[in-house]
Write a structure and sequence with these properties.
seven-stranded parallel β-sheet, two-stranded parallel ribbon, 10 helices, 9 strands, 52% helix
Length: 264
């Protein structure tokens, strides 16, 4: 039975991944910043599996000691960790770079990049010691070089995650530890609405694009989890939304009206 640690998994895509791994009889370690958030997520997920396959550990991914504690306690609880997913991340308000408050810049870069690097370092070190393991980093808008106004800092962090993950794949070549990336595409989570806080008119315009190209968490995570469990390739990029599927959505989406926000 595989044990999966998912950072930032008290809500959104991380929570959806946890639920899908549990359906496939894996052990899951849920992580979030606060004990309360972790407790609520564990309580929600506990009804879907035997209690001995579910465990939670709070911790701030931008604090290296917290990340190391997450690994140590998860391994102590379940014995080994087969898969570590660096999912914790945040988006900033959809504003031009010079309009962003300094604290938004600092928090976004720290969590999306430094926190992910801490996760990789702790997981690689621990997996090399145990003799095997697989790490996945979460891609996002900007990972492939796409540009859009209002996403300068978030997109830059995700572009850096792309480079960093590919670099680690080369460094891990020939090692018993492998690394890959997850590309979920556009997904409706609370991060989306947070980008447009206090700007309802812009949010209404953005909804048109999201309703055209995005998916809900429960439609994305089963596909990702199936591919994660089947993959054995170092450097793999696991995508939910292929280029062909995106083009099809753009062609047919205007005829097939969706309101993902109302459904959510």
């Amino acid at each position: 039975m595989k044990t999966i640690v998912i950072t930032g998994s008290t809500r959104g895509i991380g929570f959806g991944l946890a639920a899908e791994f549990l359906k496939r009889e894996c052990n899951v370690v849920v992580n979030g910043r606060s004990q309360n958030a972790v407790d609520l997520a564990v309580k929600d997920l506990a009804g879907r599996c035997p209690p001995d396959r579910m465990w939670g550990q709070p911790g701030d991914m931008t604090d290296y000691d917290h990340v190391q504690r997450l690994w140590d306690n998860a391994r102590s609880h379940f014995g080994s960790i087969e898969i570590w997913i660096n999912n914790a991340g945040m988006a900033h308000p959809d504003l031009k770079f010079w309009e962003l408050p300094q604290e938004e810049i600092d928090k976004t870069v720290s969590l999306n990049l430094i926190g992910l690097m801490y996760g990789c370092r702790v997981a690689i070190t621990g997996m090399l010691a145990q003799g095997s393991g697989f790490i996945y980093n979460m891609y996002g808008f900007g990972s492939t070089g796409m540009l859009r106004t209002g996403m300068s800092i978030y997109g830059s962090t995700k572009r850096a995650v792309n480079y960093f993950t590919e670099a680690l794949a080369k460094e891990l070549a020939g090692q018993p530890v492998k690394i890959g990336s997850l590309s979920p595409g556009m997904v409706i989570t609370d991060l989306v609405s947070a980008q447009y806080k206090d700007r309802p008119e812009e949010f209404e315009r953005a909804k048109q694009i999201f309703n055209l190209l995005a998916d809900r968490v429960e439609n994305v995570t089963p596909h990702l989890v199936e591919q994660i469990l089947a993959n054995d390739k170092n450097g793999a990029v696991i995508r939910h939304m292929s280029t062909a599927r995106m083009m099809s959505r753009m062609i047919t989406g205007r005829l097939r009206k969706r309101d993902l926000f109302a459904e959510a």
